[in-house]
Amino acid sequence: MTRAILAASSAAVGGVLALSFTSSPAAAQDGPCGGRYTVRPGDTLAVIAQQCRVPLAEILRANPQIRNPSLIEVGWRLTLPGAGGPPPWRGEGRERLEATVTPRAGPSGLSVDLRGEGFEPYQAVEVAVGRAESEWDVVSRTQADGRGRVSETVQVPRWADAGDDLVFVLIAGPGREARTQRFDVVDRRDPDAPPNAGDDRRVDVRGEVSQGAECPILTTDDGRVYSLASSGAADVRTGVRAHVEGRVVDMSYCMQGTPIEVGLFRVTGEDGRRVPLRREQVLGRWTPRGGDCRRPALHIQANRAGGQMIETSLDGAPRTGYVRLGENPAFVFDQPRREFGLEPRRANGLAVSPPDRGPVRLGGQWISGDGVVFIRCAEEFVGGGRR
């Protein structure tokens, strides 16, 4: 859910709209950007507010044509009232940014809740984590709400060892960050761990999937039964052998065996290995689920050497890479090296996972967390609509 909002927060290329306004305060003429600003590729309102030293709320009041602060288009002409004041980083009357993490201790892989306050309304925020006295890794990107509050759920890194002290950081811009109190990494079996710190209710199972009374069920080789409730993050199939990751839930309409909410559903072979991805499963034009096939985000086609090439964009720049098939499929790009893991989703779906170095914008979509599902476009809908 976090990954789609972020993709929309940058100025969309195309759809130029010129807007005129009747007045521009004299103070605006003395600011870094003057009294007017033309939206450029990659801009967000938060970036414009910081760069031009105008509070974001003032920009919104002076430009009533902006109905959604997360959606601005390249070419828009914005009025900048009162530009040239102090940088608009402190939010509504706050002296500093604040961040908290809940719980305060737990094992690697545990999901934790981060909360922040004092940010600019609708400001883009990076979420990072690292050892207390070391560098941080960006693990997610999100956006403050209309009151400057941030709410995000992330996992304790798998690389964290018992005994580590971690810090989660909400980053609003250069020199503007909020650190949480220290998070203690504990062993799941540590008797001194805080109550429930090691119980993140996660399950990782393999077995045969069949249709149960209310929901699909997975039966493991040792006879354990799990009912599979999909929240839409994973496409559950029956009549296959699968690897499932998810979280035990207390209440569910699926009550056969142990009910779990499925986060990952992967079809495997009889030996438990991943079913190889084949060429016919990737060729074509693709759009994010719910996207517009008239403007596909990915184009995958065969080349003369017998491989598969992908044409798309990385962080807004056009890029060409290749598609690796087999048991470890991925989109692969060089300079810099990026590998996006791939998983088939039903007949015409392809789940794309983020690279090891953190979230990247691929084809206009932030690929982070559990990734993004792309849907293959029918050829009759590609380009200018139905043919």
SSE map:
Layout: H1 2-8, H2 26-29, E1 36-38, H3 45-52, H4 56-62, E2 77-79, E3 98-102, E4 105-106, E5 111-117, E6 124-131, E7 137-143, E8 150-155, E9 165-173, E10 176-179, E11 183-185, E12 202-211, E13 216-219, E14 225-230, E15 240-248, E16 258-268, E17 284-288, E18 298-302, E19 308-314, E20 317-324, E21 330-333, E22 338-345, E23 349-352, E24 360-362, E25 365-367, E26 372-376
Helical content (DSSP H or I, runs of 4+): under 10%
Q: Mind describing the biggest β-sheet?
A: 8 strands, antiparallel, barrel
Helical run tally: 4
- Summarize model confidence as the mean pLDDT: 75
- Count of distinct strands: 26
pLDDT < 50 stretches:
1-10, 12-29, 83-95, 191-199
- Head-to-tail CA distance between termini: 33 Å
Spatial order of the strands forming the largest sheet: 17-18-19-20-21-22-23-26
Order of SSEs, N→C?
Answer: HHEHHEEEEEEEEEEEEEEEEEEEEEEEEE
The rounded Rg comes to 24 Å
Q: Which structural category do the helix and sheet elements fall into?
A: mainly beta
Strand portion, in percent?
Answer: 35-45%
How is the quaternary structure best described?
A: single chain
